Amino acid sequence: MLLALGAGWAQEGSEPVLLEGECLVVCEPGRAAAGGPGGAALGEAPPGRVAFAAVRSHHHEPAGETGNGTSGAIYFDQVLVNEGGGFDRASGSFVAPVRGVYSFRFHVVKVYNRQTVQVSLMLNTWPVISAFANDPDVTREAATSSVLLPLDPGDRVSLRLRRGNLLGGWKYSSFSGFLIFPL
Fold first, then answer.
1. Which of 38, 55, 105, 109 could form a disulfide with 171 if both were Cys (CB 3.0 to 4.6 A apart)?
2. Contact of 76 with 89, CB cutoff 8 Å
3. What burial class does residue 103 get, using C-beta atoms within 10 Å of its C-beta: 0-12 exposed, 13-18 middle, 19+ buried?
């Protein structure tokens, strides 16, 4: 693309060019500058773009948040990415904004040796997959799993601690997901 800042022109057939003060903004073809029919405005997520990543910065001690052996929610206090706004930090769960196939991954680390950690990924109220860490001689053992799920709008995906204590310092425990394609 040819561009002359002083004249404010672009080569014929190229993307529209907008001059805003000292900044030059080049719009993508078919995308309106203010989020019109062509898609989202620059700096915003295009429709259908969904991704999240969250971590825990402190330990998950069942006595403080849930009873040991119960199916209490695992909360994530730091949200690194929440493209599309589907991750609800207050509940620690992801709510699907659009129908599609999603990928989810979680990684948790147990705090103590001689304990078992069991974590389940839940779709609404049903466990879909679980991961265990139960080597009695290893203190910082990890339980990790991933899954692809078809979701409808409003479906809720969360993690539940079934047994044990999770290590949170240094952000060892994480939960992430993204839309692979809409249906």
1. 55
2. yes
3. middle
pLDDT values of the chain reduced to their tens digit, one per residue, 183 residues: 444 444 444 444 545 444 444 444 444 444 444 444 444 444 444 566 999 999 988 765 553 444 334 447 888 889 999 999 999 998 899 999 999 999 999 998 866 656 777 889 999 999 999 987 766 666 667 788 999 999 999 999 999 887 766 655 556 789 999 999 999
- Non-local (6+) Cβ contacts of 9 within 8 A are 3, 17
* Burial of 52: CB neighbours in 10 Å, binned 0-12, 13-18, 19+: buried
Structure tokens at 54: 């969250």
Residue 64's identity, in one-letter code, is G
At residue 29, the 3 state secondary structure works out as coil
**Separation between Cα atoms, residue 183 and residue 168, nearest integer Å:** 36
Contact present, 57 and 77 (Cβ < 8 Å): yes
Distance CA 103, CA 40 (A): 24
Are 110 and 133 a contacting pair, CB within 8 Å?
yes
Q: How distant is the alpha carbon of residue 118 from its chain centre?
A: 21
Tell me how crowded residue 161 is: count the other CB atoms within 10 A of its CB: 24
